[in-house]
Design brief:
Shape: extended
Number of helices: 5
Strand order of the largest sheet: 1-2-3
Number of domains: 2
CATH topology of the largest domain: Aldehyde Dehydrogenase, Chain A, domain 2
Largest sheet: 3 strands, mixed
Order of helices and strands: HEEHEHEEHEEH
Length: 161
């Protein structure tokens, strides 16, 4: 995985790694800066377990390779947890039943939802819901801010040729 964009962002992500541990979560993978990458803004991909959805590492947008594994009791409980956030930029559903995953994706309050993937398609609009921002990037919707549309109304009874 590549580096983050700046020292400031790396330090921000590292502060969330520390916060997660302080909140009682346990990093079972990663959790720091890779020893073989002393230069650059690298952070190890990190997976936290023992996470409660009320923890800040589960509630806030970290913008780094940090994942929280939160147990749930059935589809409806999983949906409740997924939607219980002030943010809604991107999510993914991992399932052995892709058709059910697509149905569930419609119920998640998030700007982009992947089913068995975490990819972006640059031809599709991308942007968040709730406090994850307004507007869209990419796709036709992404260029609409740069386009001026003009409507011309011909007189009644004439054709618009």
């Amino acid at each position: 995985i590549g580096p983050l964009s700046s020292r400031r962002q790396r330090d921000r992500v590292k502060s969330y790694l520390d916060l997660g541990k302080a909140e009682g979560a346990r990093a079972i993978v990663g959790g720091g800066v890779p020893a073989d990458r002393p230069r650059g803004w690298y952070v190890q991909p990190t997976l936290f377990v023992d996470v409660d959805n009320r923890m800040r590492i589960a509630q806030e947008e970290i913008f780094g390779p940090v994942y929280c594994l939160i147990p749930y009791d059935g589809v409806e409980d999983g949906l409740r947890i997924a939607n219980d956030s002030a943010y809604g930029l991107q999510s993914s559903i991992w399932t052995s039943a892709p058709t059910a995953g697509l149905k569930l994706a419609r119920r998640i309050r998030c700007g982009s939802v992947g089913v068995n993937s975490h990819n972006l398609d640059m031809a599709a609009p991308f942007g968040g819901l709730k406090q994850s921002g307004v507007g869209r990037e990419c796709g036709i919707e992404g260029i609409s801010d740069y386009v001026e549309i003009k409507s011309i109304m011909p007189p009644v009874g004439t054709s618009a040729r």
